[in-house]
Specification:
246 residues; Rossmann fold; alpha/beta; 47% helix; 9 helices
């Protein structure tokens, strides 16, 4: 039996990168997925690669707009009849030192990561409460644990997601809803591979396993947290960083 057979998942920021990797692993385990992202064309292409009408739906969604997030989770119920899993993955970066960072740089990152995660958690929980079950996965980062120079906005947002996750887990546990977070480290994506080679090498040198992670490895942890294999896990933050920043 597939681990997510018959389940329906909504994933934000799912047209590429970690969001797409998570969606791909969910589909492989039997789930139907609704992909939310800003670029509808690329999101539609991603949904088609995942099976299209047979189990993948694309929806344009700006996670900073609560009404659009509500429409996103509503699309899952309308199309597939239920909502079992919510993955709040959408994110952006506006990296620059604090001295040079503008208020817009700060606000945009906080809005997408932290407010977007709150919007997704709140919208999904409203549906899951009715069924007295469900699981919500939020994407934090090791940057939220240790802080990174040039990322006061991103590090603050990712640390905030940890607090949000734990508070929501306490609020929703008695409703049968589990809320957990994943904190990736250095994962091989188009964004990280654009790093200058010396910087990439220095980051890898800090990792006990001696390599960067692959998006599929985040997807595997997401499957664990979304499935009954983690039925007694809530309020947890699982670090997936090869041992970096232990």
């Amino acid at each position: 039996m597939s681990l997510l057979a018959g389940r329906v998942a909504v994933i934000t920021g799912a047209s590429q990168g970690l969001g797409y990797a998570i969606a791909s692993r969910f589909v492989a385990e039997g789930a139907s997925v609704v992909l939310g992202d800003l670029d509808l064309a690329s999101t539609t292409s991603a949904a088609e690669r995942l099976g299209g009408d047979d189990g993948a739906l694309a929806v344009r969604c700006d996670v900073t707009d609560s009404s659009e997030v509500q429409q996103l989770v509503g699309a899952a119920v309308e199309r597939f009849g239920r909502l079992d899993i919510m993955v709040n993955n959408a994110g952006i970066t506006r990296d620059v030192t604090m001295r040079r960072m503008t208020e817009a740089d700060f606000d945009q990152v906080i809005d997408v990561h932290l407010k977007g995660t709150w919007n997704g958690t709140r919208a999904a929980a409203a549906i899951m409460r009715e069924n007295q079950r469900g699981t919500i996965l939020n994407m934090s980062s090791l940057s939220g644990k240790v802080g990174n120079p040039g990322q006061t906005n991103y590090s603050a947002a990712k640390a905030g997601i940890v607090g949000l996750t734990k508070a929501a887990a306490k609020e929703l546990g008695r409703r049968g809803i589990r809320v957990n977070a994943i904190a990736p480290g250095l994962i091989r994506t188009p964004m990280t591979e654009a790093l200058p080679q010396p910087l990439w090498d220095s980051k890898v040198a800090d990792i006990p396993l001696g390599r960067a992670g692959e998006p599929e490895e985040i997807g595997s942890v997401a499957v664990f947290l979304a499935s009954e294999m983690s039925s007694y896990v809530t309020g947890a933050v699982i670090e997936v960083g090869g041992g970096r920043f232990m």
